[in-house]
Each structure stands twice: as structure tokens, then as C-alpha cells.
Write a structure and sequence with these properties.
CATH architecture of the largest domain: Orthogonal Bundle
CATH class of the largest domain: Mainly Alpha
Order of helices and strands: HHHHHHEEHHH
Shape: elongated
Distance between the termini: 67 Å
Strand order of the largest sheet: 1-2
Number of domains: 3
CATH superfamily of the largest domain: Terminase, small subunit, N-terminal DNA-binding domain, HTH motif
Structural class: mainly alpha
Length: about 220
């Protein structure tokens, strides 16, 4: 159940739909937005602080109810990424029965193939372990710890005043919609531009007030 907490009905519906398949465009369409503008609307919603907060809270609640934590996921990723095949064998080089393997080693096994055959009436059983690939787990850990982060290369329009900030934010939304920026990157850049806009507006206001005070002084004199 999505907690609205200040969201409009449409925004709350978008949060609910987004948590189903994490597809922003389809979530926007299912929430009632036009298919023609769904991608842009999804990008705008995903960079909205309140919507993003509701999504994060919803996903966290879903994980808690399912009994899943980030620690559990990292632990499993670690087991696969740092699996040592030597632990499959005893000190004499013989395979250790799967039920006797330690938890870390057993977690790296994706499956077990058992082949039964006979030669000269002598039964033979062949067991083959299928191991989980390390690549995906290593990549996930690299992403989690920021080891493979790349510099965001995105050219913003020139900003010389508050009006330019509006154009810059529109460019960021367009970049998120096209996939040039991730939603999280777009949100960060939009927040920075908004702070810059407020700074320009404050500076312009101070300048105007100073001009008014100067005119008042001239009139009095």
C-alpha cells in the first residue's frame, strides 16, 4: 500500500505502478498519462523528490515484508564472487559430499547433475557441480562500492541568470528521458540547478533593493 504523504492521486498511482516492474514509461501510461508524453512524464516524476522518496520507502517496505535486506544480498554476492573451488575437495583431493560443504561454498553452487550408468554390471554414479558465474556478482559489488563509476558527461546550456536555469532543467529532463542520464543523476543535477536559480534570484533581489534605496536617498537629497 503506497503512503501518499502529499502526493497527488496520479503521483501515488505512478509510485504504485513503478514498483511493479521498475519501468517508468509503462508506469506513467498505466497511471493515466498520455502514451506520447509518458517517457517525459516518467523522467519528471522520477526526479521529483517526494515521488522518489515514496518509491524508496515502498521498495524498502516490500523488502522488509519479504524478509530481504541489503546485507543478505551483499553476503550472497560475496559468496559467489569470492568462491574458492578448492573448498569442494577434501585434503586428499576427493570431492566433498554436497551436504557436507560449508555454507559459503554451497551458496556458489547453481545446481548438481547426477548421471547413473553401469559398465560390466558395475554401477557408476557421476556427480557434476554447476557453479554460479562470478561475473554478475563481481559487477554488482563493483557498482555497490562505486568502483566502476564513470564521470557524467552532459553539456548543460550556458547559465548566466535565473531564466537560464529553467532551460537547463528542461535539458536535464530531456536527457533523462532519452537515457543520457540516469534518474538519480538527473535528480542531483536538477537540485543543483534549482539551488543556483535561487542564488541568482536572491542576488537579483538584493541588487533591486539596493537600487531602490539609492533612488530614495537621491530623492531625499
Amino acid at each position: 500500500m503506497v503512503v501518499k504523504a502529499g502526493l497527488s492521486d496520479k503521483q501515488a498511482q505512478f509510485v504504485h505502478e513503478y514498483m511493479i516492474d521498475r519501468n517508468g514509461t509503462q508506469a506513467a501510461i498505466r497511471s493515466g498519462y498520455s502514451a506520447k508524453t509518458a517517457q517525459m512524464q516518467a523522467s519528471r516524476l522520477l526526479t521529483n523528490a517526494m515521488v522518489r522518496s515514496a518509491i524508496d520507502a515502498g521498495l524498502s517496505d516490500l523488502a522488509n515484508r519479504a524478509g530481504i535486506s541489503s546485507e543478505m544480498v551483499l553476503r550472497e554476492r560475496k559468496r559467489i564472487a569470492f568462491f574458492d573451488p578448492r573448498k569442494l575437495l577434501d585434503k586428499d583431493g576427493n570431492p566433498i559430499p554436497i551436504q557436507d560443504l560449508d555454507a559459503d561454498t554451497a551458496a556458489a553452487i547453481a545446481g548438481l547433475d547426477v548421471v547413473q550408468s553401469a559398465s560390466n554390471d558395475i554401477p557408476c554414479v557421476i556427480k557434476k557441480y554447476r557453479l554460479a558465474t562470478k561475473d554478475n556478482s563481481l559487477a554488482a559489488l563493483e557498482k555497490y562500492f562505486g568502483l566502476n563509476e564513470k564521470t557524467v558527461r552532459f553539456a548543460l546550456p550556458t547559465i548566466k541568470g535565473a531564466d537560464d536555469c529553467t532551460k537547463a532543467q528542461a535539458a536535464v529532463l530531456s536527457a533523462v528521458a532519452s537515457g543520457a542520464l540516469l534518474p538519480s543523476e538527473g535528480q542531483t543535477m536538477a537540485s543543483m540547478i534549482d539551488a543556483l536559480r535561487r542564488s541568482y534570484e536572491t542576488s537579483e533581489l538584493v541588487t533591486r533593493l539596493a537600487a531602490v534605496e539609492e533612488q530614495l536617498k537621491l530623492r531625499k537629497s
